[in-house]
Amino acid sequence: MAGAEYFKPLIVFLTPKDVRHHYEPEAPLPAHETVIRPLLLNSIAAYVYRLSKDADLYKDNADILLPDKGKYRLDISKECIKGHELLWNKTAWARGSIVIICKPENIDFDSLFKGCYDIGLNNTPNSGNSPAALKLCLKEIEAGNVSFCFSASNGLEWMSIYSTDERRETLYRTALKNIKK
Predict the structure, then answer these.
(1) CA torsion, points 137, 141, 40, 33, in degrees to nearest 10?
(2) How many Cβ atoms sit within 10 Å of the Cβ of residue 165?
(3) Cβ count near 179 (within 10 Å)
(4) Which residue ranges make up each domain of the chain?
(5) Residue ranges of the alpha helices (H) in the chain?
(6) DSSP reduced 3-state for 156
(7) Which residues fall within 8 angstroms of residue 81, CB to CB, at 6 or more apart?
(8) Cα gap 118→181, rounded to integer Å
(9) Is the pLDDT of residue 2 over 50?
(10) pLDDT band, residue 1 (cuts 50/70/90)
(11) Which SS3 state, helix, strand or coil, does residue 71 take?
(12) Bridge partners of 102?
């Protein structure tokens, strides 16, 4: 339907503008520790989409991936970042989206946004992401949770944040106060 409104999540950039998604795929990045680790430590669940069991990326990360209805649940009781940087950093649809689900009251957003570089609204959330991942993100809004979606196409260049409209406005103001300038 032409002109129909659709959900536009908040988007925060996890790398500086001069880096974007041009980094060594296996490299540790600041966002692994400043953004991803705090989210995983406070998450309800985390999922990886569109990852074939035949792919080297799956084989190299199988120790933290638990099959779950057509996707993989990250075993957050294990180390999911160190030694697994390639899973997070991969671009060009080598994997699908990664979604981390959290209760909003468990996240220190001031601290989280200090690891981010820019902010806006994602006007094309369906581009660069797995449709099933976005469906889960929208479902989690109804449950009162916040979902953090890492792009399948651009790796750790940005993260989309799915929350209620009211919370999105608050998060936007919080991010503006805390992102790296």
Answers:
(1) 80
(2) 9
(3) 16
(4) 10-178
(5) 30-31, 37-41, 56-61, 85-89, 109-113, 131-142, 165-178
(6) coil
(7) 32, 33, 36, 37, 40, 88
(8) 8
(9) no
(10) very low
(11) strand
(12) 43, 146
Q: Which residues of 106-136 are buried (b: 16+ CB within 10 A; e: fewer)?
A: ebebeebbebbbbbeebeebeebbbebbbeb
Q: What is the pLDDT of residue 37?
A: 98
Burial of 83 from C-beta contacts in 10 A (0-12 / 13-18 / 19+): middle
Question: Residue 88 in contact with residue 81, Cβ under 8 Å?
Answer: yes
Residue count of the chain:
181
Q: 170 CB contacts (<8 Å, ≥6 apart)?
A: none
Q: Sign (positive/negative) of CA torsion 21, 27, 153, 111? A: negative
How far apart are the C-alpha atoms of 87 and 180, rounded to whole Å? 25
95 token code pair: 């994997």
